[in-house]
């Protein structure tokens, strides 16, 4: 039985193995999610196998033991060996499924570990990307705030540069502005065309720097802008959005009404002038007619808009007086073509609204010589039309445009010419618009103070600038650079230190961001590569259903990770784009732009220091130097006075020299705003008695204080910060007048400074303004305004090409006004015929003829001077000889033979003036000009020619009779050797003069007919 116990024991072990295999089967089912697998199949086989040998062994042993007891004596070792093998196979079959499952689990776990690694790395990459994104945003914000700080500092610099009276107090504080009172007049400032846009913007900025524009209904300003270029209009509108200027700014924007069809419909005359199918609409293309035509198409809407705003302005201010200032360039198409018509329309609108004629000033910028011939022709055509209206409009009762018009030239040998023009023009217009009338205060003179009345009489300004004419102007100012100095100390240098520190921090942050970005790019690239590899491996890996579901989830998640890294909200590409934008040269909020702005601001600070130490020579201002800006306490600027400041700096002599120039003539105060022939500016001409006699008789206005100047200069205004009586004193500037005149309000509140009432500071500003009349008045083509010569040449060249009508504009749509003003018949003609007639008129019109009263009288005065010289020479000789003969007849002996000889020599040197061609030329010109002054002057010359001829003719006969009397005297002196010798000298002189008179009389007949 002992040997039979072994199978039984092993059978029980098999049963246990069966249970384990069954448990394994269930476990595999649960773990794999599938009943039938290779592993579970082996478990089933194992169960069947183990059941087979275990159960069969037990049954076999029982049967065998009853039937063959002898078998029980089999060797135990052998049984152990047999059943060990059987059990071993069961155990192996039990282990194999587990091993197979474990292998597949290891494969799955390897993939899962790789996935988890990718997940961790991607989470870190996304966190790094988010952090880098935030850093780049902070950098952008830092750049933005730094640029805003620079912009604010630059804005304050613009204010300081424009306004010497401002004291800058800090980057976040409002500057201390000078106090002034705006006269009770509505101001309408009109910019037309691209050039007008720049001038209007410059003037607005100057007014802002003065604190003159306020967001109040009673603030008496209206700014108007018209241009065919809608981008210019939009830029100007956006520039002032949200500022105090916006409610006072009207920018034309009805471009939808400006179509080729509407332009042709409104301007039927175009067919006679312009044959092209396309009419310039969004720009005039440097054609003046196009500027006029486009304006005519929207004229009604434009004027209605302006009238509405004018009515609101008048209602708010209660003022009836209006001053209109029109700013434009004469060389373009829009402004040059439409400015006359727009001005006349605005002038009429104001008169209809207020019942009072506005005073209208115009400013036209003339193109440079190196600009195109088209620009030159436009400017000359505009000047032609302007002169004709100025000279003839008022006499015909027309709504002529301007009371006075200033020409400004860009042909200046200075840096930043446009900036200089804009600044000088803005200061000039502001001075014209805020001049006050002096009124004595209590006591006498400056010791007790001088007050200024807040008055502004438009008629006074008209009187200043009569006659209506073209002018240019000279404006000069001297001041201590308090505004620049306060800006440098309180804004420029502190802000520069701040922005340089910020720039370095931003640069370092960008370097760190670049390193982080490169590391992130490397990480993300590795993650994406690993995702692709793992995804491929997972796709090829066969998994149990339970593992497959998790594998699919991991694969789906990896696609999501890849998507987030590649195309998510924050990606390497987007971060790289953000970084590149920060480093882009064209990005407004990029580091290169910031670096450029910091560099420019650094240069601005450096330039300001250089300016303070050695102010450049300027044609519009004299600035006292500040050699050591660091040594001046800017806190003193609000209480200091100019004289005290320059005394501290040792600049008294420079100040006196500047004041001497300031109160002197034109040449002492720099160039004007146009290029003038200074040899013809206020140069005395024709000072002889005959010349002055002729001028006084025919145009006495040309003679000022007994002298004729070419051309005359009018002091439009002399605006100074001291009492006018001090400037006019012979000993100005003296120590006393300078000291008293420059006391600041802070130290002497009773003292009122200058034309601007109650100005806070006396750091500046002495000003002088001259008005200079233009055009030639001496010699053919000898222009005072030298720029006119190249304008005229270009005009004449284009006229030869027979398209000069494209460069004119006036009266193309107003045939009746043209006919009434010029007398040229166009009524009853077709639009095409009429416009051709108008072109012919402008083409042949010479604007100099309207100045013939000046240059014609002066040229004829020179003719008269020559003729009078002949007449006077013969009259003086005849008078002296007759006196000598009469004295000798009465027994006298003292004959003035030397004097008579000198008079004879004078006559011998005389020549008949060959001036008939000049006289005829003036007469021919006057047949067009129809000047009564020249008619009378020509008649005077004709009478003088006749008179001189009569003198010459009668001189021969008179001297013949004188010789007869001389013979009688000689007969009575026989024997007196000395007397006879003198009488012979006298006879020879008379014969010579008689012969000269006869010759000149014949030459007169030949020369004058």
TrEMBL record:
Alphabetized UniProt keyword annotations: Membrane, Transmembrane, Transmembrane helix
Keyword hit for Membrane: yes
Protein name, UniProt field: Tubulin like
Gene3D superfamilies reported for this sequence: Tubulin/FtsZ, GTPase domain
Organismal lineage: Archaea, Thermoproteota, Thermoprotei, Acidilobales, Acidilobaceae
InterPro entries for the chain: Tubulin-like, Tubulin/FtsZ_GTPase_sf
Chain ranges passing through the membrane: 12-32, 44-66, 78-102
Origin: domain of life: Archaea
